[in-house]
Amino acid sequence: MTTIIELLYKFDKYLTNKLQKNSFTSNLLITPTSKFITEILIIIFLSLISYEIIYWSGIYLKIWEYHAKDIFTEIPIHCAHININLNLVKGDKIDQLNEYYFEKQNQINFLNLLKQNSNKTKFQDLFEFSKFIKYYFEFSPDDFEMNKEPEFGSTILHLRKKILKLFNESEIYNDYNTNQINVNDVKIYNNLNHEVPIEENGNYLSKCNIETGNIIDVIIII
Questions:
Q1: Total Cβ atoms within 10 A of residue 44
Q2: pLDDT tens digits for 9-57?
Q3: Which of 25, 38, 93, 145 supports an S-S bond with 19, CB 3.0-4.6 Å?
Q4: Euclidean distance between CA atoms 55 and 64, whole angstroms
């Protein structure tokens, strides 16, 4: 008990010295009542700041969960439009394709970036086109109003179908179109350069790291 009183006395002395250094804050210490109210408000303010820092740090570090997570659920904003870079790869080059995207995922690392730049010749024959062909896709209500949860937007499967339709109808790909290519031959890579697996076909773009305005790669296996 004595220790607590001593700590409060030291805090009071320290706070008083700090407040008296400024002409504005020194006016808050004119009377015992104003001094008491000022110190109480400062203690409450510091307590709230400390609580918020500890509370949100714990959530960020996943030590505990947000107390109202069941009430205020996060709803991803549906993907309204995206840009895609499209290219073609032969079926016997899947392993090389996987290696290409494995290195692309790690290019943020400086050493891996140097390695990738030095190995560009390794992938020069991987793609059918020397440069990716760019397209812009916009999603209207017709692209997702049929879904169980239209507020989440379009699905991965729907995007695969749109890209396959583009492939089948474009004259650019006439020499590659064998009419045997299906939606699962359309490989979609999200904004992390990770392939979106077929198992996610029924999932929404916004839940697979494909968001409005993203530029993503799409590879059609021929």
A1: 10
A2: 887 888 888 888 887 778 778 888 888 888 888 889 999 999 999 998 9
A3: 25
A4: 8
Q: Cα–Cα distance between 13 and 20 in angstroms, integer?
A: 11
Q: Per the structure block, which two tokens stand in for 220?
A: 């059609």
Cα dist. 197→7, 157, 163, 186, 205 in Å? 60, 10, 16, 10, 12
- Strand 133-138 and strand 81-89: the pairing is antiparallel
pLDDT tens for 66-104 read: 776 666 556 667 789 999 999 999 999 999 999 999 988
DSSP, residue by residue, the chain: -HHHHHHHHHHHHHHHHHHHTSHHHHGGGSSHHHHHHHHHHHHHHHHHHHHHHHHHHHHHTTSS--TTTTTS---PPPP-EEEEEEEEE-GGGHHHHHHHHHHHHTTTSHHHHHHHHHTGGGGTTTSSSSSPEEEEEE--GGGTTTSSSGGG--BHHHHHHHHHHHHHH-GGGTTT--S---GGGEEEB-TTS-B--GGGTTSBGGGTT--TT-EEEEEEE-
**Closest residue by Cα to residue 14 from 46, 51, 53, 50:** 46
Domain positions in the chain are 2-60, 81-221
